[in-house]
Amino acid sequence: MQINVLKFGGTSMADHKTWKQVLEIINKYEFPVVVVSATARTTRRLVEAGELAARGKLKEALEISDSIKERHNQIVEDFLKENPHEKNKLIKDSCRKNTEAKISKLNKLLTYTERQSTLSPQMKDAIAGMGEQISSYLLAQCGLALNMMTQHIEARKIIKTDAEYGKANPNLLEINQRCGSLETVLENGFIPIIGGFYGESPKKTITTLGFEGSDYTASLIGGAVNAETIEIWTDVSGIYTSDPRFIPEAKPLDEMSYFDATEMAYFGAKVLHPSTLKPAQERNIPVFVKNMFEPEAAGTKIIRESHHELDVLAMSFKRDIATLTISAYETVMGYSFLTKVFSVLEKHRLAVDAVNTTEASVTIALSDSALLDTLSKEFIEVGNVSLTKDKGLLTLIGCSVNSAQKLTEHIFGALGDIPLDLISFSKEKRILNLVLNNEELIEVAKRIHKKLF
Ligand code: ADP
Ligand code: ASP
Ligand code: MG
């Protein structure tokens, strides 16, 4: 059985018209396993509701919950109106009942959050995961109105994780075992539809895999069923040389390697969750990024080895970076200085984006977070600390080994008199990182893109 895992993101799940398009794409496959996101903007609104409740604004939080309910009821209603079927009443009733139950659970979580006056990570995940729980059930029901044998499969039964809320780690052994049931569903002629992004901890609580986590759900399932392809269906025709929303001249790439695509996601390209390619890579499963609205366009194929003759393959950028420079006290031995700095990062499980060192100082660039002040305090044990916020990180990916000279010339030409905070280049990894001010990031990205692509 050659299984294709298809993932549809928030924009694909925007309204009843896109739901129809999603179902039509699914219908072209013999053995599809489908993973869907929440409807567009729903996850963000759910988190907003949780935050409002924690600040005592339960009424506003419940209004959001109510509008989410109304929106989903409306999508189903419009869908069924445009796709009449003898079972429509049955489908509509079961949709309403399911959404009602989910929203009533959500309201309980919001009320509890208000009483606690804080949105705990556990509660935040339970609330945030609600969007996919609702959308996946409803899409499966709407499939029935098109005479498709769509079957909702609860993600909690399959995506088993640890209890690290907000960024849960999948339990691959359990996931691999439980995905066996999907093959039975397919053998019986049904099409499994699963909510992405969330899973379940050993304590049976809801966890989430991080923002954009539905991509990761799809690849975890793809790896587990040893899929023929994992296909990320979205609103652009593949991975572009840079974010087309900001760089209109950006072009889609035909092909790239797992490594380059991972780096691209890690350094800010929202088109993929950074962990997506891991399960695919382990089993050498090609990953496609394709456009829902232009299904005929080739999209991008991501595979193990992809060679190119270009000076540079692509460019990512990421806003809201902070830089921390730690200058060692004279009493701290040079050889233990870096160990001390990195053990603080390890303690807080923080990954850095770029690093520069001199013999007695280190500058690290990392995403701005609530932890920065704690970090700065801990670094004071080792040296003088200076913290700068509101920075942006620009990353060139797949730099050709022989073009470093040419690239830096172009970069400095593009920068003009815009100040640069940090530059680092890894020949081995073919990555060049620049840190500069947030407000100049997009302008510099545009200029560099014009020169290099
Ligand atoms: P989905 O809802 O399908 O998950 P996302 O919004 O998460 O969609 O991802 C698609 C968006 O990613 C695109 O609309 C685009 O703006 C953004 N993006 C950022 N960098 C890139 C890139 N290099 N190539 C393509 N899209 C990118
Ligand atoms: N709905 C989640 C988010 O907005 C997961 C996803 O769409 O991939 O991050
Ligand atoms: Mg996405």
Automatic annotation (TrEMBL):
<dbReference type="GO" id="GO:0005524">
    <property type="term" value="F:ATP binding"/>
</dbReference>
<comment type="pathway">
    <text>Amino-acid biosynthesis; L-lysine biosynthesis via DAP pathway; (S)-tetrahydrodipicolinate from L-aspartate: step 1/4.</text>
</comment>
<keyword id="KW-0028">Amino-acid biosynthesis</keyword>
<feature type="binding site">
    <location>
        <position position="245"/>
    </location>
    <ligand>
        <name>ATP</name>
    </ligand>
</feature>
<keyword id="KW-0547">Nucleotide-binding</keyword>
<dbReference type="InterPro" id="IPR018042">
    <property type="entry name" value="Aspartate_kinase_CS"/>
</dbReference>
<feature type="binding site">
    <location>
        <begin position="234"/>
        <end position="235"/>
    </location>
    <ligand>
        <name>ATP</name>
    </ligand>
</feature>
<dbReference type="InterPro" id="IPR036393">
    <property type="entry name" value="AceGlu_kinase-like_sf"/>
</dbReference>
<protein>
    <recommendedName>
        <fullName>Aspartokinase</fullName>
        <ecNumber>2.7.2.4</ecNumber>
    </recommendedName>
</protein>
<dbReference type="GO" id="GO:0004072">
    <property type="term" value="F:aspartate kinase activity"/>
</dbReference>
<dbReference type="InterPro" id="IPR045865">
    <property type="entry name" value="ACT-like_dom_sf"/>
</dbReference>
<keyword id="KW-0418">Kinase</keyword>
<dbReference type="InterPro" id="IPR005260">
    <property type="entry name" value="Asp_kin_monofn"/>
</dbReference>
<feature type="binding site">
    <location>
        <begin position="270"/>
        <end position="271"/>
    </location>
    <ligand>
        <name>ATP</name>
    </ligand>
</feature>
<dbReference type="GO" id="GO:0009090">
    <property type="term" value="P:homoserine biosynthetic process"/>
</dbReference>
<feature type="domain" description="Aspartate/glutamate/uridylate kinase">
    <location>
        <begin position="3"/>
        <end position="291"/>
    </location>
</feature>
<feature type="binding site">
    <location>
        <position position="240"/>
    </location>
    <ligand>
        <name>ATP</name>
    </ligand>
</feature>
<comment type="similarity">
    <text>Belongs to the aspartokinase family.</text>
</comment>
<keyword id="KW-0808">Transferase</keyword>
<keyword id="KW-0067">ATP-binding</keyword>
<dbReference type="Pfam" id="PF00696">
    <property type="entry name" value="AA_kinase"/>
</dbReference>
<dbReference type="InterPro" id="IPR001341">
    <property type="entry name" value="Asp_kinase"/>
</dbReference>
<dbReference type="InterPro" id="IPR001048">
    <property type="entry name" value="Asp/Glu/Uridylate_kinase"/>
</dbReference>
<dbReference type="GO" id="GO:0005829">
    <property type="term" value="C:cytosol"/>
</dbReference>
<comment type="pathway">
    <text>Amino-acid biosynthesis; L-threonine biosynthesis; L-threonine from L-aspartate: step 1/5.</text>
</comment>
<dbReference type="GO" id="GO:0009089">
    <property type="term" value="P:lysine biosynthetic process via diaminopimelate"/>
</dbReference>
